[in-house]
Structure formats: C-alpha cells, structure tokens
Design goal:
The complex is a heterodimer of chains A (416) and B (100).
Chain A: H1 7-38, H2 44-61, H3 81-100, H4 107-123, H5 130-162, H6 168-208, H7 220-236, H8 239-248, H9 254-273, H10 280-294, H11 302-333, H12 335-359, H13 375-383, H14 387-393, H15 403-415
Helix pairs in contact in A: 1-2, 1-3, 1-6, 1-7, 1-8, 1-10, 2-6, 2-7, 3-4, 3-11, 3-12, 4-11, 5-9, 5-10, 6-7, 6-9, 9-10, 11-12, 13-14, 13-15
Chain B: H1 7-35, H2 45-58, H3 71-96
Classes of the chains: A mainly alpha (416), B mainly alpha (100).
C-alpha cells in the first residue's frame, strides 16, 4: 500500500460515496417494485425485501463496468478528492430533493451533474468533455423514455388484446408471477449497474488519495460495502417515488405491470448489450407510462409525467450547481477543513430534508392510497414560492391531505 | 447528429427491444390465454371440452378452474411460459457475464 496523503478526508469521501449509493438504492426501489406494489402482486414490505436482496446479490455479480462513472465526460486528470466529494454532495442533495417531491429521477445523472459542476468550478470549461456530456448523458435521456414508452405501450396493447375475454381475477392471479419475475430481473440489473458506479467512485477516490495503485482492481471491502449500502437503501424503500410510479402516473393492473417491467428489463439489458447504456429510471418510468398509453381505456396523468420530465431536464444543471457551490465553498475555506465543512453541510441539509418529509410521511402503510391530483397544487405553490404551503402539499402524493386544497384556494384568493 | 449518436447501435437496440420487450409479454399472455378456457360467449371445441371436464370434476362450480384444459392447450401454455423463463435465465446470464 502506498502512502495515504489525507486519510481522514479519504474516509469522509468514501462515507459520502456510500451515502450516495444508499440514496441511489432507495430512490430507485420503485423502478423495479412500484408496479408489483401497486397491483398488490407483492405486499409492500415483501417487495422491498425481494428487491433489496436482488440488489445485494446483483452488486456482487459483476465488476465489468466498475470503471469511473465520469469516464469520457470529465477530464480524469482534474479529478481530486474535493471534486469527488462536491460531486457526490450534488448527487445526494438532488436525489433527496426529488425523493421529497416523489419524483423519479436518474441517480446517475444526478451524480454526473454534481461531478461536472464541481469540475467546472475547479478548472473551468476545459475540464469537461462536452461531446461526452451530449452523447452519453443528454441524448440517452431523450431516447430512453421514448423507446420505453413505445415498447411498454406495444407490449401492453398486445397483452390486453390477447387476454381481453379472460376474467380479471384470473388475469391478476396469473400475471402476478410474470410481474414478479420481470421486476426481479430489473432489481438484479439495477444492483449490478448502479452499485458498480459507486464502486467506481470509491476506487477513484482511493486512487486519488493514494490508498491503492492506479492499476488496482476494486478491493473486496468496497464491493461488499457498496452492495450492503445499496441493499439497505432499497429495503428502506423510497415510498414517495414508489407511490408516484405505481399510483401517480397510471392506474395499473397486473397485465400492465408485467408488460412494463418486461419492457424495462429488455430495454435496460439490450441497450447495455449493444453498448448504449440508458438510465434505469428513465427506462422504467417510460415503460410504466407506456403501459398506460397501450392499455385501452387507461388513464395517464400527463401532468405528473410532465412534472417528472421537467425534473429530468433540471437534474444535470441543478446537481451541477450544488456540486460547483460545494467546491467553491471547499476552496474558499481551504485545506481539509473546507471538505469537512462541505460534509457537515451535507449532513445538515439531508437531516432538514428528512425532517420536512416527516410532516407528511409516505410509507408501506399508505403507499397504495388513492391518488389525489395534487400535481397542480404543487406546481402552484412552487410558482408562488410559498414554502409553508409546499411543505403541506409535500410530495404531491398527499395520501389524506385536504390541506393542500385549502392552500391552493388561499393562494388564488391572495393573488386575485 | 451522427457525431453524437451511434445510429447503428441505436437501431439495433430499438429493434431488439421491441421484439423482446413487447414480444415476451405477448408470449406470456398467449400462455395465459391457452391455459384459461374461452369466455362463455365462445364455444370452440377446446372451450367446450374444457367446460365438460371442469363440470365433471368440480360439480356445479361456475368458475372453470385453471388446469382443467386440453393437452394441446397445456403444451402451448408450457411452451409459452418456457420461452419467458428462458428469457429471464438469459437475462441473468447476461448480467453475470458482465454485460456488453
């Protein structure tokens, strides 16, 4: 082992990377399990336990892409420990904020946004490979949902046609197995893909900190800790995101759920096979939307979908701004102390977001409650910058909140 | 655009995703369809035979139980489900092999 230059800073960065891995897990539980939970193919707790186990196993399966997540997007030479830390903070904060509002958004895009922002703040535009940003991040973000909506819609439409004269309860009973199988595959693929990204970040930090050789492989403790962090995150369950995916976008039945998850698994695995990696979240969300488009008579809440698409557009710049701000703060304070302050700030912000989320908790007990169209209310309170009302409306899912409606009326009266 | 997009890879993804991603649910649905007798309105040979066997075994039960279907339909159903299971196994094998 080489001489470790900044041992405490390195520990801080590794802990932050594991924290990101954890938020990645709970933010993305819904990608695989939201449909199974919404159709009651699995009980909520059973679904997250299954998904967590498969994410855990998936993380151990392969190390093939445990290269750096930022490869080809930023100049590897400018990546230092403070840059990695600032990038991770950007990713975590965006993951937590989108979770608070129940918006499914790509964890890897958040991380990339954070790192790009930190690099911009550190060395300016020269440090970013813009063609890589366009070809590896932005275009796939446009392609993934379109493709997934198409495949999900076609699959659902065919399934609906083939099974249209079969009694509903028979359909539910049979298709739940297909649903569980396809959702499990999505979980496994997620564990493999996303845990490797965190492993790559930790490896990058270890190399930058001089703890391991540049040619070194991923140490086992990194693999194990990433697997456990992601598994725990998944088990905790991002119930707000699960609720949006399972109840908010489309009212879903077992046939739609099965078609959507199969579409997700197929698009994720095939795109990776042909060297064209797409975000799990974008694909899963697109497939669920597609299952609403393809189902005759199904209702798709395009308002909720629109809010989500907007969040996707904002992900990169928003996480980037946080990443850049963290790096500036880090450098302004200077030395290791700067990084510790950034870390402390992350802990404070995360705690604050968690506290806000407790005002209107969404968990396994109310995740399937009837969806009230609160999206317009959220949009309005956001537009009027009323933090108090925003906190009341919370994640939009508002399982039993009539307060949201009251606030909306107040706002309208006040502005009239 | 082609400077940013590998059009060839994208086309392969699209074609393969449509075939597998939409084809497999349809295959599963065909399996379910084969296993479940046709609705009351339809009186094809298989449906009638099914109704008979169901009536024989479960008396006056209005619901025709899954499993009491003709051999041909059972084989078709098993074949459909086998394709789906094979696809899942292939997917797991792909993940284990490291992708790409």
């Amino acid at each position: 082992m080489e001489y470790v230059t900044e041992p405490i800073l390195l520990v801080v960065v590794v802990v932050t990377a594991l924290a990101f891995d954890f938020t990645n897990g709970f933010h993305d539980t819904g990608n695989a399990m939201a449909t199974s939970i919404a159709t009651r193919a699995l009980k909520p707790k059973a679904a997250v336990l299954l998904s967590a186990s498969l994410n855990l196993v998936g993380a151990f399966l392969s190390l093939a892409v445990a290269a750096t997540i930022a490869k080809g997007i930023v100049d590897a030479g400018v990546v230092t420990l403070p840059v990695v830390l600032a990038g991770l903070v950007g990713g975590i904060v965006w993951n937590l904020l989108t979770w608070l509002f129940g918006i499914p958004s790509s964890s890897s895009h958040a991380l990339i946004g954070g790192v790009v922002g930190a690099v911009l703040a550190a060395v300016g535009t020269d440090g970013v490979i813009w063609s890589g940003v366009i070809s590896k991040v932005m275009l796939p973000a446009l392609i993934a949902p379109v493709l997934a909506i198409g495949v999900g819609a076609l699959g659902t439409w065919m399934v609906a046609r083939i099974t249209k004269d079969i009694p509903e309860d028979t359909n539910s009973r049979m298709f739940r197995w297909g649903q569980i199988g396809s959702a499990s595959l999505v979980s496994l693929a997620h564990g493999t893909n996303d845990a490797q990204k965190s492993m790559g970040i930790i490896l990058l930090a270890l190399i930058a900190g001089g703890a391991v050789d540049e040619s070194s492989g991923v140490p086992f403790w990194v693999v194990a800790s990433c697997a456990i962090a992601m598994g725990l995150g998944t088990y905790l369950g991002g119930w707000r995101v699960i609720r949006t995916l399972g109840k908010g976008l489309v009212e879903i039945d077992s046939r739609q759920g099965m078609a959507a998850e199969t579409s997700s698994a197929a698009v994720i695995l095939l795109s990776s096979h042909f060297g064209y990696s797409l975000s799990t979240t974008h694909v899963a969300t697109g497939s669920i939307l597609g299952s609403g488009v393809g189902m005759p008579g199904a209702k798709v809440r395009w308002g909720v979908a629109g809010r989500m698409f907007t969040a996707w557009l904002v992900t990169l710049p928003a996480a980037g701004i946080v990443g850049a701000a963290c790096l500036w703060l880090d450098e302004a304070i200077g030395g290791d102390a700067g990084s510790y302050v950034v870390f402390g700030l992350l802990v404070a912000v995360s705690t604050a977001i968690w506290l806000v989320s407790r005002r209107k908790p969404v968990d396994h007990t109310n995740v399937n409650d009837e969806w009230e169209d609160a999206s317009t209310q959220v949009a309005e309170v956001v537009a009027t910058h009323d933090p108090a009302a925003l906190a009341t409306v919370g994640a939009g899912p508002a399982p039993s909140g009539t307060a949201a409606t009251t606030h909306r009326t107040d706002d309208q009266d006040g502005r009239a | 655009m082609s400077e940013y997009i590998d059009v060839d890879a994208l086309l392969r993804v699209v074609v393969a995703a449509v075939i597998v991603g939409a084809g497999l649910p349809a295959m599963f649905a065909l399996g379910v369809r084969a296993l479940v007798p046709s609705g009351a309105g339809r009186a094809d040979a298989a449906g009638a035979a099914l109704g008979e066997s169901a009536g024989g075994s479960s008396g006056a039960s209005a619901e025709v139980r899954v499993g009491h279907v003709g051999a041909g339909r059972r084989v078709a159903a098993v074949a459909s489900f086998a394709v789906c299971v094979a696809a899942i196994v292939a997917g797991i094998a792909f993940i284990v092999s490291g992708g790409h």
